[in-house]
């Protein structure tokens, strides 16, 4: 069409092709699921923000409004909504894309292990779980500290011991009543 330009941006960073049409004094953006009338150089920034918001909505829908998200993942989704993809660091952008792919994939979202300790997870309120059983509570951001990691390793050790003797791990058995279930330990 004379007097107009057509530019295609094919970016894996956006998970889709974005078509930008420049028509005389108006610039319009068209992508599947969003339409935005924009001015000047702001339109590309808005495209990135719209896509981040659409991706965030998909993540939240797939995780019970974010209730099943790991606290760090929830924080990442919040930053993506507030600042758009362009407002995230390269590492955060990549993590956000991976989170989106996992949450919307066929296997769905799976909360990561706390400090990489198998079967130990933490929710957004700081409750720590061993195989879906609540066993402890940590304050944020202490839970992510080195001291928090040492405590998490101890909780996991206790949970493994309790399971080995046929006791279901709970806050009581892991923390308050631990002496009753603790193995006999000899100290030098």
Which regions are unreliable across 5 or more consecutive residues at pLDDT < 50? 1-48
Number of helices: 6
Q: Please identify the structural class as seen in this structure.
A: alpha+beta
Q: What integer is the average pLDDT?
A: 77
Q: What order do the helices and strands follow?
A: EEEEHHHEEEHHH
Main sheet attributes: strand count, strand direction, barrel closure: 4 strands, antiparallel
Structure description:
This protein has two domains: 4-104, no CATH class; 114-181, no CATH class. With 188 residues, the protein is of the alpha+beta class. The chain has helices at 42-62, 71-83, 90-104, 146-164, 171-176, 178-181, and strands at residues 4-11, 16-23, 26-31, 34-38, 120-122, 127-130, 133-137. The protein starts with a strand and ends in a 7-residue tail after the last helix. The radius of gyration is 23 Å and the shape is elongated. The strands form two sheets. It has a four-stranded antiparallel sheet with strand order 1-2-3-4, with helices on one face. A three-stranded antiparallel sheet has the order 5-6-7.
